[in-house]
Amino acid sequence: MPAGGRGPDHRRRRLLAAIAGAPWAAAAATDYARVTRRALEFPADHGAHPDYRIEWWYLTALLDTVGDGQPIGLQVTFFRLRTPIDPANPSRFAARQLVFAHAAIADPTRGALVHEERIEREGFGVDAATGETRIALDAWRFERRPSDGSYAARIAGRTLRIDLAARPTQPLLLQGDHGYSLKGDPADGAGASDYYSQPQLACDATVEVGDRRLRLAGRGWLDHEWSSALLPPGAAGWDWTGVNLDDGGALTAFRIRNPDGSTRASYASLRASGGEVETFGSEAVRFEPLQAWESPRTRGRYPIAQRVTVGSRQFETRPLMADQELDSRTASGAVYWEGASRVFEAGRQAGRGYLELTGYAGRAQA
Q1: What is the distance between the terminal CA atoms of the chain, rounded to a whole angstrom?
Q2: Do the strands 160-167 and 193-209 form a parallel or antiparallel pair, or are they unpaired?
Q3: CB-based contact 22:86 (threshold 8 Å)
Q4: 269 near 279, Cβ under 8 Å?
Q5: For 325-341, how does the pLDDT look when each residue is reduced to its tens digit (9 = 90+)?
Q6: Is 154 exposed, middle or buried (0-12, 13-18, 19+ CB in 10 A)?
Q7: Side-chain half-sphere exposure of 163, counting CA atoms within 13 A
Q8: Domains delineated in the chain
Q9: More confident residue, 362 or 341
Q10: pLDDT tens by residue, 196-207
Q11: 15 CB contacts (<8 Å, ≥6 apart)?
Q12: Helix/strand/coil (H/E/C) assignment for every residue in the chain
């Protein structure tokens, strides 16, 4: 639809512009809850945390097509954003919380992502529930079943439809210090988040792209994270990877970048197939670019293949395809590279996962 139209894209742009331009935005920032060290509690912490500014439930998977084994990347992410609007505002139409979502398929036969997105204010059937994972955004749904801990996602877009079931095969993985994840200076906790992962999810999915229908199966990864600061002050973005290792283990690694590209802080965790978890601080985690790709749309230049050193081990990520940039400037405003990747160690494939790169086409912000 043209930019001057009155369809959903126009409504979303007006909604975001109204919130971003509100004169009380800066003053209200001190009202957001601050992440502090605490014991995560389940099932309550599976649900939303509306006092914090930003939260996401992020499910990725590099799956195989049933029948011919062709690899397909899949990403479903639901976000909740607390706006600066006073929670005491009595209007049912006040956009106190936004719920938005991205869904994408990485199909090498197409060479670029097929993706859709939604954004609406909470209310009138749009909700991120507390106490348990249950998110409704128009015809898009994501929920956890308490009976067995499995997840179900349904994406009903205009060009993309996804029905996904994801069953846990391992316990939750609490990142950082029992779920408290530092992103900057330990003295002030700036940029810290509460963060847990669910690696090695057994996934089955049905995907419809146009008139093409695919059945997919394999392993996926869920991250649930919430905070009131997307990044520490002055940071430009992050590189992150979550990998389901072929031996049943799990690798998580990220680095927070300064505007000049240097590393401000980094972290990794390695869970062995037997369940033992080892964590690594900045002195033991290093990201090195191996291949770059420049977006023809945003001119962002992304290091889409990387060598990730974690302690004495070295892993190399290789993208399923180069163009996996998710450009949502017409909705949530985010632009990032979200890449289904194979992961190698000592020259042999060691796992599958996703590499996420933010802040390469403008500073990451929310």
Answers
A1: 25
A2: antiparallel
A3: no
A4: yes
A5: 998 776 666 789 999 99
A6: middle
A7: 5
A8: 42-358 (2.40.370.10)
A9: 341
A10: 999 999 999 999
A11: 95, 98, 119, 120, 121
A12: CCCCCCCHHHHHHHHHHHHHCCCCCCHHHHHCCCCCCCCCCCCHHHCCCCCCCEEEEEEEEEEEECCCCCEEEEEEEEEEEECCCCCCCCCCCCCCEEEEEEEEEECCCCCCCEEEEEEEECECCEEECCCCCEEEECCEEEEECCCCCCEEEEEECCCEEEEEEEECCCCCEECCECCEECCCCCCCCCCCEEEEEEEEEEEEEEEEECCEEEEEEEEEEEEEEEECCCCCCCCCEEEEEEEEECCCCEEEEEEEECCCCCEEEEEEEEECCCCCEEEECHHHEEEEEEEEEECCCCCCEEEEEEEEEECCEEEEEEECCCCCEEECCCCCCCEEEEEEEEEEECCEEEEEEEEEEECCCCCCCC
Phi, psi of 149 (to 5 degrees): 75, 10
**What distance in Å separates the CA atoms of residue 167 and residue 204, rounded to the nearest whole number?**
9
Q: Please give the model's pTM, rounded to 2 decimal places.
A: 0.90
Copy the structure tokens of residue 320: 């399923």
Q: Assess contact for 237 and 360: CB atoms under 8 A.
A: yes
What is the token pair recorded at 111?
Answer: 């060479």
Question: What gap in Å lies between CA 117 and CA 160, rounded to an integer?
Answer: 10
Q: For residue 262, give both structure tokens.
A: 């240097």
What average pLDDT does range 50-72 have in this prediction?
95
Residues found in the chain? 366
Both tokens of 285, joined, read 């985690």
Kindly state the average pLDDT of the residues 153-166. 96
pLDDT at res. 364: 66
Query: Average pLDDT, stretch 306-312?
Result: 98
Structure tokens given for 196: 């847990």
Residues 6+ apart with CB under 8 A from 233: 184, 190, 191
Find how far residue 141's CA is from the centre of its chain: 16
Q: Which of 152, 151, 146, 93 is nearest to 123 (CA)?
A: 93
